[in-house]
Amino acid sequence: MIVQVFDVVIVGGGAPGRILALRLSGDPSISVALIESANERELCLRDSRFIRDISGCLQRRNFTPASKTHIDAWHDLGNSGWDYDSFARAVHRCQSQYDGLASTRSRTNLTIATETTVHKIHFDRSSNGEIVATGVEAIKRIGGRAIFQARKEVILAAGAIGSPRLLEHSGIGNVELLQQIGIDGIIDNPHVGENLQDHVGTDVLFAAKKDLQTLYSLSSKRDNGLVNTSDYCHHRANLFKQSCLTSSVQLPLPGINSSEGKHDLNSLLRKMATYDMVDQSVPTTPEFATVHELFVRSILTSPADASASLTVRHACTDLDQRDDVGCTCANHTAVTVLLAHPLSRGSTHITGPSIEAPNLTDARCLSHPADVEVLGRHVLAVEQMFKHAELMTQQSKYDKVLFPNMDTARKYVNRTASGSSHYTGTCAMMPREIGGVVDHKLRLFGCPNLRVCDASVMAIGPGVAFKTAIAGVAEMGAAFVKQSLSRKE
């Protein structure tokens, strides 16, 4: 068995873990271990993509800034220091000063352990009886069992599924649930793994006009992918040089500035008031359900805040996997409609004591009726856009009515919508009594030297600015840790 000792141990080589490792190892007096289950090549590829994207916090070459309304909502949950101005400075720091792990290769105080899977966190008690994280236990693909001891802090950056999974395997979570599967509870917090949120969306398809180049030509008989590959290699020309995403926009609730739209909004709000918020959106606490509903209502009633995003793509939808998509033409234009702030919430929990046992994960997308109503209204708006907008009519043919009324849009959403794996919320940053797992400095309630720093801490999921939000959380977390290690708290 290999035993190594560091000041800080970081679990997870995704974007948050890499940012933490880069920032903390910048101080040569702090020894840092970054542990990642993927191999080094995969880690380097991930890092190079992040460097390329983070210069503008890009998602498929789209700049998606975080919403002030959304970030301030985190602050209003009781998280001091998480106001929009502070968060924006953190994102700017990442955009302008992230050089990637390659720049750290000469740092002797940073150890990157790849192909290493962490199984559990080790704990002890301090002289005053406080629970303290002392390190993690892992299995290396080559070398077997290893212990990474932490003199000062352990940081989980394994994502909204991985971080609560590791906490539960280590005895932190709903003690009754853990005892049922043979795990001794160390810290009882029933909110671990709860409040799982995900962006849910659907595609609306329209036949493309004959002269519009789409990705369909890469696989068609008349213009196969090998020919396109050759053209690109020799001339840097054709569709391989462009993104499948051609345009994107974030929009408020359709018609919000018209009298008819305002009447529809009031009708929607009255309907929302009749829903049993707790029953429809469990698991959560009644207090958080109320806060979350008020936040979503503020988004829906604001002409300046987006309730959905629309993304136009050309021939990127697998028609074999869809039923009644409106258009069955392989050469098509698709509009992906993504709900920015769903009220539906689910959970993710381990199913057995072995780290190999799968998680039971269910975001319960569209379980809240308001999500169907909002997404359905945006789907209706997309059809009107393609019917009248000059840019759309230049690219696509509109030859039949897809959604004659709201009822058909609701049915379409229920039949075709799915999640996007933008998971958040499972180790929520908010007061413990309303559903929190970590405090405003990302410290686990009950173990102050164990932090969680990834998408799982976002109690209210971001709009579509997913990468931006993750980068900001990581930068904020690195600042908290450096502050703690320098004894300035």
TrEMBL record:
SUPFAM superfamilies for the chain: FAD-linked reductases, C-terminal domain, FAD/NAD(P)-binding domain
UniProt-annotated binding residues for FAD: 118, 244
GO molecular function: flavin adenine dinucleotide binding; oxidoreductase activity, acting on CH-OH group of donors
Domain Glucose-methanol-choline oxidoreductase N-terminal: 159-173
Keywords: FAD, Flavoprotein, Oxidoreductase
InterPro entries: FAD/NAD-bd_sf (IPR036188), GMC_OxRdtase (IPR012132), GMC_OxRdtase_N (IPR000172), GMC_OxRtase_C (IPR007867)
PROSITE patterns: GMC_OXRED_2
Needed co-factor(s): FAD
Pfam families the UniProt entry points to: GMC_oxred_C (PF05199), GMC_oxred_N (PF00732)
UniProt xrefs under Gene3D superfamilies: FAD/NAD(P)-binding domain, Glucose Oxidase, domain 3
Entry's family note: Belongs to the GMC oxidoreductase family.
Annotated PANTHER family: GLUCOSE-METHANOL-CHOLINE GMC OXIDOREDUCTASE (PTHR11552), GLUCOSE-METHANOL-CHOLINE OXIDOREDUCTASE N-TERMINAL DOMAIN-CONTAINING PROTEIN (PTHR11552:SF201)
Stated name of the protein: Glucose-methanol-choline oxidoreductase N-terminal domain-containing protein
